[in-house]
Amino acid sequence: QVHLVESGGGLVQAGGSLRLSCVASGSTFSSMAWYRQAPGKQRELVAGISRAGRLFYADSVKGRFTISRDNAENIVYLQMNSLEPEDTAVYYCNARTARFDVDYWGQGTQVTVSS
User: Fold this and answer.
1) Beta strand 10-13 with 109-114: parallel, antiparallel or unpaired?
2) Which residues contact 48 (CB under 8 A, 6 or more apart)?
3) pLDDT one digit per residue (tens) for the chain, 115 residues
4) CA-to-CA distance for 10 and 16, rounded, in angstroms?
5) What is the distance between the alpha carbons of residues 65 and 88, in angstroms, rounded to a whole number?
6) Helix, strand, coil content of the chain in percent (nearest 5)
7) Cα three-residue angle 111-96-93, rounded to 5 degrees
């Protein structure tokens, strides 16, 4: 059974930093990613990383956020620097299984950036 458990959200002032972690278990995962959803907006892809280390970043976070993963432990991280109030959202971890390409989601962690 696949489980994703996120941690690291919280309240931070603009310009501050947070690091999100997501531990995935129960399968082997090809890609892992972070999405976010702000109130009244659609969920959007923030950053993704393949098992081989290929990276994707949304334009809005390039140069500020860094995604990384530990394949041995099935952990994906999102280091968020120079946070802005516009980054306020619930952040969700996503993991896609290497077999059958099934997507799984974490429960979400709130990130709030005050101005």
Assistant:
1) parallel
2) 31, 32, 33, 34, 55, 56, 67, 94
3) 999 999 999 999 999 999 999 999 999 999 999 999 999 999 999 999 999 999 999 999 999 999 999 988 899 999 999 999 999 999 999 999 999 999 999 999 999 999 9
4) 11
5) 14
6) 5, 55, 40
7) 10
84: DSSP letter: -
| CA atoms of 7 and 13, how far apart (whole Å) | 18
- The edge-to-edge listing of strands for the beta sheet with 3-7 is 3-7, 18-25, 75-80, 65-70
Look up residue 101 and give its two tokens: 């390409």
Amino acid at 57: Y
Residue in 108, 80, 107, 102 with CA at minimum distance from that of residue 30: 102
CA distances from 86 to 37, 60, 64, 94, 108 (A): 11, 10, 13, 21, 17
Structure tokens at 3: 């489980």
